[in-house]
Design brief:
The chain contains ten helices and seven strands. By secondary structure, the protein is an alpha/beta fold. The chain has a single domain, classed as Rossmann fold (3-Layer(aba) Sandwich). The longest helix has 16 residues, at 97-112. The structure holds zinc ion.
C-alpha cells in the first residue's frame, strides 16, 4: 500500500538503502557504514560556506524580490558533477536517505553559525500530492527532517500545500517560472507559522522562483520571518 506520509514507503530504493554498495555521488567507492558518501566525496565535494556570511551569493539572488533573513546552501551545483548525480539519486532513484543525511550535515553547520540566526520551524517546499505519491516521498521534506533533527527545531512538512501540478520549469525564463508557480502554493497551518522565523527548504535553488513563491505566501502570515536553505545552488541557470 502506498501512502504520502513523511516517511517513504518500501520501494526498491528504500530497501536498497540498507545495503549501499557504492557512494551515491561518485558510484565508484564504498561509503562508510551508515553514510551515503565515500571518504573522498565527503572531503572533496564543493562545500559552500555561505552560512558564515549574512550577505552571500544565495541571499543576493533575492535582493529586490522579498525580505530574506538568511540563506545558505550546502553544495555548488554544476552540470555533470557528482553533486548533480547525488541530487538525481535523491529525486529519481528512491535514495531518500541522501536528503536526511545532507540535512543533518547542513543543520550542524547552521546551528553553529551566528550569522545565520535561529529559525523556529522548518517548512519544506511541497510536491504535488500525485508526484509525492509516485515518488514515495518529498525529497525536500527528507532534507527538512535531517535539518530539524540536527538543529533541534520543529519540522512542519505539511505547512504548505501545492495545489497545481505544474509543467516542467526547465525551459522557462525567471518571469515565466514565477508566473507559473505564483498561485500554486497555499499555507495550510497558519496558526503554527504565525509569529515564527520559518526556515524554508528545497533540494536545489536555480532561479529561486519556487522558493520565492512559497516565501511570499509564508510572509502573508502575521509576524513571520523567512530564511532559506537548499542542498545545492546552481552556478548558472
Ligand atoms: Zn564518492
Amino acid at each position: 500500500m502506498r501512502t504520502t506520509h513523511t516517511l517513504p514507503h518500501a520501494s526498491d530504493g528504500f530497501l536498497h538503502f540498507f545495503y549501499p554498495e557504492q557512494c551515491l555521488a561518485c558510484e565508484s567507492s564504498i561509503p562508510a557504514r551508515g553514510d551515503v558518501l565515500c571518504v573522498r566525496c565527503n572531503s572533496t565535494l564543493p562545500l559552500l560556506n555561505y552560512h558564515l556570511q549574512k550577505e552571500n551569493p544565495f541571499t543576493i539572488r533575492f535582493w529586490g524580490r522579498l525580505p530574506l533573513h538568511s540563506g545558505a546552501a550546502l553544495f555548488l551545483f554544476t552540470k555533470d558533477s557528482r553533486v548533480q548525480h547525488l541530487l538525481h539519486n535523491l529525486k529519481y532513484n528512491g535514495q531518500w536517505k541522501i536528503g536526511v543525511e545532507l540535512g543533518r550535515k547542513l543543520g550542524w553547520l547552521l546551528k553553529a553559525s551566528r550569522a545565520f540566526g535561529k529559525p523556529d520551524v522548518i517548512v519544506p517546499v511541497p510536491l504535488h500530492e500525485r508526484k509525492e505519491w509516485m515518488r514515495g516521498y518529498n525529497q525536500s521534506a527528507m532534507f527538512g527532517s535531517g535539518l530539524a533533527s540536527a538543529m533541534g527545531i520543529e519540522h512542519l512538512p505539511k505547512a504548505l500545500f501545492r495545489s497545481a501540478y505544474t509543467e516542467t520549469q526547465t525551459r522557462k525564463s525567471r518571469i515565466e517560472r514565477l508566473e507559473n508557480v505564483r498561485d500554486v502554493f497555499e499555507v495550510r497551518q497558519r496558526e503554527q507559522l504565525a509569529g515564527k522565523h520559518v526556515l524554508l527548504v528545497d533540494d536545489v535553488m536555480t532561479t529561486g522562483s519556487t522558493l520565492e513563491a512559497c516565501a511570499l505566501k509564508i510572509l502573508e502570515v502575521a509576524g513571520t520571518k523567512v530564511s532559506m536553505a537548499t542542498i545545492a545552488i546552481a552556478s548558472h541557470f
